[in-house]
């Protein structure tokens, strides 16, 4: 398998998967699931693999990454892809990673969450100094106001065995639905191999927001424009069992 050259000028590669709902056979819970490496700014799918189920993304992702020239890129994926072996493959391939840490990595998630807990010093002692840096953004659109606050820290570097980790972050999201006044709040934790000089909190927040755009720019386009969820295929085309990489 050869490598795909310098397609696109964007730095961020979004690695994300989607199941085509129309491909799910009657009586089954899974259908064709596509894992794509995507440039969100340019709308380009660099590589894609068809996998059997979402749980298999972690085994398909190395194949996608091997097809790419990763040098100078930043790869971001959701919590399903937060894996040690992928972290090593990305960094040793000349790129950096940004991952999210959620319930499928409970120990890692808790380690990061503990960094951002309020410090409660013992009586007579001083608070332990932190290295927190914060970025904030507000966006309005589609009938809602969304506030995001991202806080970074380098305190876990050297205290965790996660490969090539430099920073961790806490992302707080608050969404106000303007028509109803309903408020939704969420806290997400993440980690990256990028150093603070390479990407401070403002830049990391931008990367996270750009990564989230894959839902509107790729998945929505497949669903509504290309009618991906309406497909009745239950198997990938003959000879293309692993999508665009064969």
Task: From the structure above, extract its key features.
246 residues, alpha+beta, 9 strands, disordered N terminus, disordered C terminus
Give an account of the 3D structure:
The protein has 246 residues and is α+β, with helices and mostly antiparallel strands. The protein has helices at residues 57-66, 84-92, 106-115, 201-212, 214-225; strands spanning 12-19, 33-39, 44-51, 74-77, 96-101, 133-141, 144-153, 167-177, 183-192. It has a 9-stranded mixed beta sheet, sandwiched between helices. The model is unreliable at 1-7 and 219-246 (pLDDT under 50).
Uncertain segments are: 1-7, 219-246
Quote the distance from N terminus to C terminus: 7 Å
The H-and-E topology, N to C, reads as EEEHEHEHEEEEHH
The helix/strand class is alpha+beta
Rounded mean pLDDT is: 80
Give a short overview.
The protein has 246 residues and is an alpha+beta fold.
Write the topology of this structure.
Blueprint: E1 12-19, E2 33-39, E3 44-51, H1 57-66, E4 74-77, H2 84-92, E5 96-101, H3 106-115, E6 133-141, E7 144-153, E8 167-177, E9 183-192, H4 201-212, H5 214-225
Parallel strand pairs: 1-4, 4-5
Antiparallel strand pairs: 1-2, 2-3, 5-9, 6-7, 7-8, 8-9
